[in-house]
Amino acid sequence: MHSVQEISPEIFWVGGNDRRLERFENMFPLPNGVSYNSYVILDDKTVLLDTVDSSITDLFIENVTHVLGNRPLDYLVINHMEPDHGANLERIVKLYPEVKVVGTKKTFEFFRQYFNTDISANSIVIEKEGTEISTGKHTLSFYFTPMVHWPEVMVTYEKSKGILFSADAFGTFGALAGNLFADEVDFEHVYLEDARRYYTNIVGRYGMQVQSALKKLSSLEINMICPLHGPIWRENISYFLDKYNHWSLYKPEKKGVVLFYGSMYGNTENVVNALANKLAQKGVKDMRIYDVSKTHPSYIISDIWKFSNMVIASPTYNLNLYFPMHTILHELSVLGFKNRKVTILGNHTWASVAVKEMKAMIEGMKDMEIIGEPLDTRSSLKSEQEAKLDELADKIYKSLDE
Ligand SMILES: [Fe+2]
Ligand SMILES: [Fe+2]
Questions:
Q1: Residue 145: nearest ligand to its CA?
Q2: How do residues 77-107 score in pLDDT, each as one tens digit?
Q3: Could you tell me the fold of the domain covering 5-248?
Q4: Distance in Å, CA 229 to ligand 2 centroid
């Protein structure tokens, strides 16, 4: 059966959830599932905004045909071509052959790359920002938000009600449990961690582009944000805008320490535990410790983004850096991560490479400050080295105040 909700008069959510998918983009674990949002406007003209992933095609088609009833589909707006939203575009075009398809120049390039159906006769290419399409009571205008997080992306602003269809921006992992609105759920407890993990790992590299999009959209009166994943915002929108602002400026949300380590036999882990205990006794609260071989990097990256300080600890491996640690630091650098305080702990038995490598990788990122002398353990930490650990704990603690 169809499964839809009217989210505003004449505007319907026709999306769905996938709670079975193990990993988003075949990389990021989804313990709480994911939603694919899609919207229909029933005005004098009818509009479908984006489609959904292929995993929920059957339900989606049922939803769309139920809401449209016997009416034709007049417009299909493509805000984003990525297959988690674009998978059903060709199907919709075949189901409604008269539909006018709205997108950017790049949208249609990508459409041709993914599909074989020629839609050139029915394409409306938005060349100028702010171009409007009236559907009767509603007016849609289109704004380009390239690289948030693909080059073809635009967002659609419905003028009469101030509704922003924001593509992947303001999206989050986590399926919807019937409650479609952020004000109907305990967002901070149920979605915030997933929202941060979604932003940092999927959009994180494009902070500058997110900033330009935020600036561009700041002149619009926005009463509701309808993203392609996760809850819809209609209250306290500034709360989530503020999170996006922090994240895209690479500014920590919180003064605090996340510690993550690679450890083959527990000796490097032991150094991290000893340091964390000292920090806790000094009064540092809400610390996180992760084993890079155990926890998926997307979670660690999300917390690295949140906190002001990190402690990284790794042994040398094959005369290089232990590779799960290398993966995380490499990904941070790919994401353009910057502006944090870092303490480095290494370990080796006969050749010391890890400290050098970690230091070089951190120094390759912008505005990173190394706190304390890197401590390089030989095989296992000895009690006579405790003073060095105390010194590091002291410097980290002081740096939290700066
Ligand atoms: Fe996307
Ligand atoms: Fe998406």
A1: 1
A2: 999 999 999 999 999 999 999 999 999 999 9
A3: Metallo-beta-lactamase; Chain A (3.60.15)
A4: 6
